[in-house]
Each structure stands twice: as structure tokens, then as C-alpha cells.
Write a structure and sequence with these properties.
436 residues, mainly beta, Immunoglobulin-like, five-stranded mixed sheet, 4 helices, 28 strands, 14% helix, binds 2-acetamido-2-deoxy-beta-D-glucopyranose, immunoglobulin domain, TAP2 binding
């Protein structure tokens, strides 16, 4: 039970958490401010009602916690009180037509949020008031609504579609007599919004199964908003959100909320956009230099990348006087950023190498670009230095070669003309009628 005690440490200070069938036992031991949360992690909200065990009829909370424990040694956890209230948004009002909170929701409510690298969830737990006479040894709560995402931190390539995963599970707080209810899941509301730099933005709202006005979807957003088609609960639903051709202004925190009458479950996702740069070097693939002179200035074009921050350009020399790889010595500078209409940026890196010696013949200059959108080794482009007079034709050689080729071509043409003119066979075929 090493992993479990780990979650304990993370989630509940020094309390304990043990699975017991479909119930997990939370914190039978020490409670109150004496429980010391581990360093670095936010302290659990100790004013939350004490819960020693919970039942999860829909199974989503348990499955999520197990997955979190397997995949992530340090999930973050928060616990707080929750008060059932009608949805604040006007488009979701029709979900709670009753003037006051139904009796089925009586009791103490608690919200547990746990998030890790691959999963983030939030669950509303109810502690029925009537079933627990004081003093209590075991305090039982039941997970009523769990909302979870498997993409808590989607990283989307600029221009590609974002698919933000969302599922939810609902187990009615008190099983009402079947006869009093129509079979099928309850109506619900789904809401996706983005918070960025202090500004909130409703992107999509839906109330499947209810009539009424909902605000139009923004930015081409689409969501699946469905329950599975079980006649009787608990139910699971899908609220996966799709955003086409993502641009940098769409970065931010996405809040997905599932509204049920008087209950709201919410998870947050952090969307970031990236685009790896194209890297090219000019002049390429060869540069010429004469000993004692510098090769022409090299220009490394780093284009269409995002985000603009954190780009590094290094110049390397491979081969040359010292074998192997080394930092190239010379003058180097970067241009200003050029902004493109799709939100990406480009810049050029310039390099003026020191004068070459004959030992530089065949050496390669490379610009290596590092950026968060690239693997750690970065991306590089290189050119080869040819030192004149060592191998391959020099400029004079080149001119000489061109002239020789020109003369040779002329000679061939003259000769072939002579050959054609002298060909007697051709004249015969042209002037004599065919013979039988
Ligand atoms: C939700 O719906 C989307 C789109 O149909 C699908 O890709 C995804 O797998 C569904 N999620 C679950 C948990 O079924």
C-alpha cells in the first residue's frame, strides 16, 4: 500500500486512505489542524466536513483516483464545502425550476478536486444528515456528480483542432421509487468557457433535453453533450469539446461545467499552443572562401514558430582546424521578430565567421535552434565551407571550364553538321521513290 499512503500524504496531510471494496476510507486517524500537509503542496481545506469513507455508485471517482495514483506520484488535491445552489447563468435556469432546493439534496456537501499530469477530476460528495447520529466513528459520503478530463493540459499545434476531453458521471443522491420517475437520465447543462488574462469568455452552452434559449457557440466550437442511454442510473455522459484550427489568442484556462439541478461540477484545463520553427540557412549548401578571408555572412532563417519566447540560436563549427564539434567564433546577432497573421513569428539569425585558413576546407557551419516546441536537441541547418584553391574548381577554374565546354559544344555541332551533309544514304531516301 505504498502508493496509497502516498496519496494520503498528498491529499490529506497525515490522514489515511484505504480501499475497502467500492468504498475508500479517507482519514480515520488524526484530523484537524494538527494534520501537517507535505511541503510544496497546497494545504487541504481543513474546514471541510470530515469524511472517513465514501461510496461511489457511478464508479468514476474511484476509477479516476486509481488512474491518478498509477500515473502520477504527486497529484494535487483540494477539499472544500459545497452548497447546492441554482445555476447562476440565465440559460441554465430551466434546470432548477423548483423554488427551493429539493429535499433529496439535504445533507452536508463536500467538493473534492484532484489533478495530476494525465487526469483532473472534481467530485461532489454528499453526507446524508439523517443517517449519522453523533458521535460518529465512520462518516460515510456518496459521490453524486463527478466531472473529469483526461486532457488537463492540452498542447495544441498552431492551426490544428483541439479536442478537450470531458466525461461526467451522476448517481442520484437518493434512489427515488422507480414509479415516480420517468426512465432515463436527467436533463443537464454543459458549459465551456475560457479565462485568459482576467477575462472570461463563454464559448459554448448546451442544455440537451430542455427547450430554451442558449447563447450561440463562439469560435466554431462544438461539443458532444450526451448521456449514455441507460434507463436507470447511475449515468455517465460525454461533454468533449472541439475547437477548430486553434490560434494563439485561444490559449488559456478552459473551464468545463456540468450543471444539474442545484449541482455544478467543474474541471479546469490549461490549453497551450505551440508551433516548431522551420530552419534554413543561406547561402547553402556551399560557401566559398579564400584563405585569410571570411566566408560570406550566413543567415539562418527561423520561421513560423510559437510562442515567441524562449528561442535560442547557436552557431556551431564541425571539422576545421580542431576536429569535432565546437561553438563557432564570429560575430552574431538576431533580427527583430516578424509577426505573421496566423499568430506565429519569424526571425533571422546572422553570423559572420572569422577568416578561414586552409584547414577550414570541408568544415561545416551550422545554426542550431532550440525552442520548447522542438525536441531537446533542437533543429539545425548547415553549410560546408570550400576553401578556394584546395579542391574543386576555383572561380577561374570555373570560367575556364565554362569556356572549354562552350568550345567543345561548338566543335560537336560543326562536326555533326559535316557528318549530316556527307551522309549519302539520307539523300537517296529523300529523292528516290520506294521500290517494290
Ligand atoms: C466522447 O465523444 C467523443 C466524440 O465522439 C469520443 O471521441 C470520446 O471517446 C467520447 N468519450 C468517452 C469517454 O466515451
Amino acid at each position: 500500500m505504498k502508493l496509497l499512503s502516498l496519496l494520503v500524504a498528498v491529499a490529506l496531510g497525515e490522514r489515511t486512505l484505504r480501499p475497502r471494496g467500492r468504498n475508500w476510507v479517507l482519514g480515520v486517524g488524526e484530523q484537524g489542524p494538527a494534520a501537517r500537509p507535505p511541503a510544496r503542496l497546497p494545504a487541504p481545506t481543513l474546514s471541510a466536513p470530515a469524511v472517513s469513507a465514501f461510496a461511489d455508485p457511478a464508479g468514476a471517482l474511484l476509477a479516476g483516483l486509481r488512474r491518478l495514483l498509477r500515473g502520477d506520484p504527486t497529484p494535487r488535491c483540494e477539499m472544500s464545502r459545497f452548497v447546492p445552489l441554482p445555476a447562476p447563468a440565465s440559460w441554465a435556469r430551466s434546470l432548477s425550476p423548483e423554488a427551493s432546493c429539493p429535499r433529496a439534496l439535504d445533507g452536508e456537501w463536500l467538493m473534492v478536486s484532484v489533478s495530476g499530469r494525465d487526469l483532473s477530476l472534481s467530485s461532489l460528495l454528499r453526507k446524508p444528515a439523517e443517517l449519522q447520529p453523533e458521535p460518529v466513528l465512520i462518516t460515510m459520503a456518496t459521490a453524486v456528480l463527478t466531472v473529469l478530463t483526461h486532457t488537463p493540459a492540452p498542447r495544441i499545434r498552431l492551426g490544428q483542432d483541439a479536442v478537450l476531453d470531458l466525461s461526467f458521471a451522476y448517481a442520484p443522491p437518493t434512489p427515488e421509487p422507480a414509479a415516480s420517475l420517468a426512465p432515463g437520465p436527467p436533463p443537464f447543462g454543459l458549459e465551456w468557457r475560457r479565462q485568459h488574462l482576467g477575462k472570461g469568455h463563454l464559448l459554448l452552452a448546451a442544455t440537451p433535453g430542455l427547450h430554451g434559449q442558449v447563447p450561440a457557440a463562439q469560435e466554431g466550437a462544438v461539443a458532444f453533450a450526451t448521456w449514455d442511454d441507460e434507463p436507470w442510473g447511475p449515468w455517465t455522459g460525454n461533454g468533449t469539446f472541439w475547437l477548430p484550427a486553434v490560434r494563439p489568442f485561444q490559449e488559456g484556462t478552459y473551464l468545463a461545467t456540468v450543471h444539474l439541478p442545484y449541482l455544478q461540477g467543474q474541471v479546469a484545463l490549461q490549453l497551450t499552443v505551440h508551433k516548431p520553427p522551420d530552419v534554413s540557412l543561406t547561402p547553402a549548401p556551399l560557401v566559398w572562401a579564400t584563405p585569410g578571408e571570411a566566408p560570406p555572412e550566413l543567415l539562418c532563417l527561423v520561421s513560423h514558430f510559437y510562442p515567441p519566447e524562449g528561442l535560442e540560436v547557436e552557431w556551431e563549427l564541425q571539422g576545421g582546424p580542431e576536429d569535432g564539434f565546437q561553438k563557432a567564433t564570429g560575430e552574431k546577432w538576431l533580427s527583430a521578430l516578424h509577426h505573421h497573421s496566423d499568430g506565429s513569428v519569424s526571425l533571422s539569425a546572422h553570423f559572420r565567421a572569422a577568416p578561414v585558413t586552409t584547414k577550414h576546407h570541408g568544415a561545416r557551419y551550422a545554426c542550431r535552434v532550440r525552442h520548447q516546441s522542438l525536441p531537446t536537441s533542437g533543429r539545425r541547418a548547415s553549410v560546408t565551407v570550400e576553401v578556394a584553391g584546395l579542391s574543386g574548381p576555383s572561380l577561374e577554374d570555373g570560367v575556364g571550364l565554362f569556356l572549354s565546354a562552350f568550345l567543345l559544344l561548338g566543335l560537336i555541332r560543326v562536326l555533326s553538321g559535316l557528318v549530316t551533309d556527307c551522309d549519302p544514304q539520307e539523300k537517296v531516301t529523300a529523292s528516290t521513290p520506294p521500290t517494290f
